[in-house]
Amino acid sequence: MVARLKTVCRLAVLAGLVFALAGCLSIKSGLEVHPDDTVSGQLVVFAPKTELTTNGRTQEQGFAAYRKSVPPLPKGTEVPYDDGTNYGTQITYDHTPLSEFSGNLKIVHTGNRYLFSLQLDPTVLAGQVAGGDVNSAQVLVKSTSLEISLRLPGTILADQTNGKVVDGNNVVWNYSPNDTKPPQLTAVSQVSSTGAPAASSGGSGTPWVLIAAIVVIVVLVAAVAVLLILLRRRGTRPAAG
Q1: Which of 46, 71, 88, 213 is the most exposed, having the fewest neighbouring CB atoms within 10 Å of its CB?
Q2: Has residue 92 been placed in a domain?
Q3: Residue pair 140/18 in contact by the 8 Å Cβ criterion
């Protein structure tokens, strides 16, 4: 009887969560990773005020309840986000060290590669929040909209990236509520090795050295020819007199 009651209560909580998330949580970000292993940009997490203020809650209380189901976000300068229709939080990063991006949203510099990942696997997310439940995490992921833009140093490796590569080092992901999402968002970029620029510079400089040497030789030959002509003229004038 007790076990049955627990099951009923769990289903009731899950049903309540599904209803609460019907308006969906939204995550938007625009991040740029610098070659000095720091990150700049913004991360915004918000939800419609009409959903946050149900059951007599304030928008602050409603969003606090939402945020309990979201894994910890990278630390930055955080302020409330309010566009009139939605309410949430906005985190700004200004050359923030990569060490702050080591949780669910992770950016790592290893060798000559940068690796980005954002976990969306419900089983992983459930283990990252207090009292996490796989079913609840699955509902959260399904109902969340994602609009993420990321710029990495070097060149994006398309075969190891599941977002849309816009140019050589920029990748974006866009998912609407109820879209099927991958277990994680991933992106990998590769930067040139330290010795590559030097080798390239040396190879392109060799023709210029040859050209300069030829010019010097031509100038010297011309100078010698002029000098010989002048000496001959000076040497023939007395004889003619």
Answers
A1: 213
A2: yes
A3: no
Q: How confident is the model over 47-71, as a mean pLDDT? A: 92
Q: At what angle do helices 2-20 and 134-143 cross, to 10 degrees?
A: 10
Eight-state DSSP code of residue 166: E
Query: In angstroms, how far is the first alpha carbon of the chain from the final one?
Result: 140
Phi, psi of 239, rounded to the nearest 5 degrees: -60, -40
**Residue 162: which CATH number?**
2.60.40
Q: List pLDDT tens digits, range 3-38.
A: 332 332 333 333 334 334 445 899 999 999 999 999
> What pTM did the predictor assign?
0.70
- Total domains in the fold of the chain: 1
The confidence score (pLDDT) of residue 29 equals: 96
Query: Residue 165: inside a domain, yes or no?
Result: yes
Q: Which domain holds residue 184?
A: 2-190
